[in-house]
What we know:
By secondary structure, this protein is an alpha/beta fold. It has one domain: 2-Layer Sandwich (Nucleotidyltransferase, domain 5), CATH 3.30.420. It contains 7 helices and 5 strands, in the order E-E-E-H-H-H-E-H-E-H-H-H. The chain has helices at residues 55-61, 65-68, 74-85, 95-108, 121-128, 137-143, 157-179; strands spanning 9-16, 26-34, 40-46, 89-92, 118-120. Strands 3-2-1-4-5 form a 5-stranded mixed beta sheet, with helices on both faces. Helix 5 (121-128) runs parallel beside helix 7. The longest helix is centred in the C-terminal third of the chain and has 23 residues, at 157-179. The protein is globular. The N and C termini lie close together (10 Å). The mean pLDDT is 96.
Amino acid sequence: MKWYELGPFTVFDVETTGMSPVCDRIVELAAVRIDRDGTEQEFHTLVNPGRQIPPGVIRIHHITDEMVADAPHFPAAGREFTEFARGSTLVAHNARFDLGFLQESLARSGLELWKGKTIDTVRLLRRTHPHLPNYRLQSLRLWFKLPSPEEMQAHRAGSDVRWTVQLLQLALEKALAAQK
C-alpha cells in the first residue's frame, strides 16, 4: 500500500498577524490536497486581515500590509478552502495552532466549522520517530535533509506545506512498513 492511499489528505498551513486565534487574523492560507491515487492539487491565497500586520510578525513571514491589501478577506478564502478540503483529512504541523486559527476564523465568518478528521504531523512523527532532538518544522527539515529549493522560504505557508507533505510521507511510510 502506498501512503497516499490512506487519504485523501489536505496538508495546510496558515500565516497570521500573531499567536492568538481570537485576537489575531490569518494573512496567508496554503494547502496541497493529495488524493488516493497520488495526484496533487494546490491551494494558495493571501488573506486581507482587515488590520495592520505587526512589524515583528512581518520580520518572521515577510508578508506586508501592501501584499494583502487587495487579497480576499477570510470569508471568501475560508469558503474556497473548505470546499477544496472537503472529504479529506486535514493535516498540519502543530495542528493545534493552524486548526485553531481556521476554526476561529470560520466561526467569526459565520461559516461551518471543520468537522472532519485532522492529523498533526508533530504527534505522528513523535510516534514514528520518537528520539529526534525536537519536532519544529525547520529542525525536521534539516534533520531529514528535505529538499529546499531557493524559492522555498520558511514561515511562508506554501513552503511549510510542501515540507509538511514530505514529513507526512516519511511518517506514514514508516508506519506502513512497521505493519508488514
